[in-house]
Each structure stands twice: as C-alpha cells, then as structure tokens.
C-alpha cells in the first residue's frame, strides 16, 4: 500500500511522549504514572469535547454559517483547516457538512472546483473521531474514486486536513504491489480506492474485512455508478454493511433511480439539486426533454461563471494545424488538450516534442505506468507554462491550479464529459477558458445539446487563416526518418476511428462522415492505414 500511515494521515510515526514538568531527574515509575494520568485526562477531555460537539449537531443551520469555526468540528480538524487557510466554507460545504455530520446520506452536486473534496473529507474525519475510532477498529470509511490520479489527490488532501488526527489511511489504486497493499489494508481506518482494485482485494484478500465500515463516499458518483463500473460497483456494494452512511458527490449527478436504489440510501438529503430532485416524475420529464437514459435524474448542470466557453468548427484533417497554431500563439499559458484515446495523446506528445513548439509538453493517459502517471500529474501541478495532452483520466476531479485553457480537441461523448473536461479550468473562483473543437458533422447536435441542457451561450469563433501555421511538411519528414513515430501515428489514426465508431450517440458521432485519407495525411502518414 502506498504511504500507509501508522499514526494519522500525513504524520510519520508516533509522537514523542510529553516531557514531565519537573526539574529533577524523573525515575521510570514516576514517568509511567505521569503518562497514565496524562492519557486519562486526555481521554476525559476528548470525551467532553465529543459530547459538546454532538450536542450542537441538531442546531446546525447551514444558512447562518459563514466560517468553518461555526461548525461543531473537532479541535484537530479546525486546527488543520486554519493552518491551510480554509476559513470560509464554499456553498456546497456549507450546505452539506451539517447533514453529513448528523449521519444523513447526502447527494451533493456542485460546479467543478467548488470544494466537494472537503465537503466529504471533513465529515469522514469527524465521524471517526466522534466514534473514537482507533487503529484496531479497522476500516471505518471507504472513499471510491473513478481514477487513480483523483484517488491520489484525495489522499493528499486527507493527509493535510487529517494531519492532527490519529487515523491511518491507505491508497488502493492498482499499478502497485498487490501483496504490499494486502498486508497493510486491514490496519487502515480510511481507504481511498479505485473500484477495480478495491474489488480485487475483496475477492482475493482473506484479511480484508469491511464489516466494521460505517461510511462510504463515492466521488464523481455518476461516473462510479455508470455503465463502465456498474458490475464492479454492484459486487463491491454487496460487501458493505447496509446500515452505513453514504455520501455521493459530483459536478454532474446523472444517476438513475435504480443506481440510487442499489446504494440503499436512506432518505437522502439533496444538495445542489434545486427543484430537480430525482423523483420518478422529474426523472421521466428530464429523460424526455434531454437525450438521457430513461429514469435518469440530473442535478442542475452548470459551469463556473468565470469560465469563458467557445467553439470552433473544423474538418478533422485541420485539427493538428489548428492545435499547433494555438500552442504557438499561447506559449506562456497552462493548457490541457483532451483527446479521445491514449494512442492519440501519446502520438501528439511524441510528434510535438520533435516539432519543439517552445513550451514544455506532457502527456497523461491510462496506459502509462502508474509511477509515471503520478510524476506527470505532479509535474503539471507545478508548472505554470505547459501543454498537457490527456485522455479523460484527467477530466474528472483533478485540481490543477491556474489552468488557462482547456482545449477539447475531440468532441466529448456527452454534456457531462464536456462539463468535467471544461471544469479543469476556472476552479474555485479563478478565470479560465475552454475551446471546443468540432467537426462540421458534430456541430449541430453538440451545440444544440449544450445550449439546451446548460442554457449556455457558447460562442462560435472563426480562426484567422493568417494565424494558422501548418507543421505538415515537418511531420512528414519526421515520420520518414523515424519508423517508430510512423507506427505511433498509425496507431493514433486507428484509435481515433475506433473511438468514434464505439460512441453510443450515433447522431453525434458518424465515422462515415470522416475523410480518412485526409485525416491520415494530416497525421503525416503517406498511406492511409488499413482498417
Ligand atoms: N473553503 C475553501 N476555501 C478556499 N479554498 C477551498 C475551499 N474548499 C476547497 N478549496 C479549494 O478549491 C479547489 C477545488 O476544490 P475541489 O478539488 O475539492 O473541487 P471539486 O468541487 O471537487 O471539483 P471537481 O468537480 O472538479 O471534482 C481546491 O484547490 C481546494 O483546495
């Protein structure tokens, strides 16, 4: 297991015992007596604090809370919040923390970058603290995230906000030594996991026991519950005690009513849904009005106000020229470029490295080795001028500071994916821009859907041909010189077509509308690969 801590997230090893307040040399017996007294008085203080806090739970009034200090939170949590300068709760934190402290199930929906992570981490820490959870009590809370990077990020936030608590936490995300994780897991109080790896441990690890578990959190809940993870999550949930507390958070809560039933929620509180709470009638109306699954309920969908959104329409074969020109015109910016497949991200990274645009380049996609993925994620966090080519492993939840531009080079599958990608910019009241690149056949349906579901006035921009620089000749020369680059271009070509072919929304994605020869040439390929 990565970074499993014996004493409290973020603090390696036990604290030294307090020094006795005497000026003569203490003997061993005296020391032991003193330690016992201290631990007894510490326990009494804790018990008193717990009782006082619990007595205030029923009085929490979200609307009157302006500062974290007004929430009945333990000294340990308050201290860490203050140290990291979290003084004012965001709206989703204000509205959900009280309900979660009271032990209610919560479905929280709030725009990207609005602080949902603390909205569930604070209640998790408080729940364990209030129940005097100790290392020997085993797993008390499990937090599930759809991607490894997001799980890692939640773990890092937990380390900061839980630094004064005495809980142990573990990151269970795959790509690491299974045996190592296995031996440590049952000693963890809080586990942050990706669904596949969690299920693998449940299936293969006899030591792993979730019967004591009292809290389940699904971050990016709609993604955790969607088709891709459905079977895995069903099997995971079977192993959890039914009377646990469940918190679901996402910027896009597009859960079906069956999804929510599967989770066995008890009279959940909806935060951020407005009038769109998922009653059966509302769900049916939403499904009829929008292009969604029947029985789907959708929270109010929105993007940050300070995010400027625009789109451009281009034939597929002009995307690389547009991308190259865009990067050359934005060298002092932090940019994420989203594409549909790992192989495209890899090829764009390789060929753009050869072309040397004059800004740092990175690529983040699922088929990279885990250590590499985390190193790239951290590199992108640190850098202020950089372009990262990414697949949707980077689209949900990742909190990169100061991203100036999100470029959706390939059309997102649906409105949710658009929102999550775009939301990597303009986080937590910062400004940002998002440019969506569409082919002519994608324009009408995608823009119509965005306008209808997001009530969005998305601006169409026309590119000045004088500002376009084609790197085609150079790309062809590189491909002639480096066969491995040519093979990578061929794989990117096929991967893109496969992704379009496999898209469920056939009104939006039409592989037959594409000029394959022109697309192959734009990637630098003299011969169109066989399908
Ligand atoms: N109360 C707060 N005061 C100041 N900053 C905050 C507060 N809460 C969270 N933040 C900061 O806001 C940023 C975004 O938070 P977070 O990543 O939790 O957003 P999110 O709502 O989960 O986004 P996404 O929908 O993309 O997952 C983080 O950098 C976090 O440290």
UniProtKB/TrEMBL annotation:
Residues 97-271 form the Helicase ATP-binding domain. Residues 306-469 form the Helicase C-terminal domain. Residues 1-43 are annotated as: Disordered. Keywords: ATP-binding, Helicase, Hydrolase, Nucleotide-binding, RNA-binding. Residues 66-94 form the DEAD-box RNA helicase Q domain. Pfam families: CTE_SPB4 (PF13959), DEAD (PF00270), Helicase_C (PF00271). It is an enzyme of class 3 (hydrolase). The keyword ATP-binding applies. Its EC number is 3.6.4.13. A motif (Q motif) lies at residues 66-94. PANTHER family: RNA HELICASE. RNA helicase. Belongs to the DEAD box helicase family. DDX10/DBP4 subfamily. This is ATP-dependent RNA helicase. It comes from Drosophila virilis (Fruit fly). The lineage of its organism: Eukaryota, Metazoa, Ecdysozoa, Arthropoda, Hexapoda. The gene is Dvir\GJ15571.
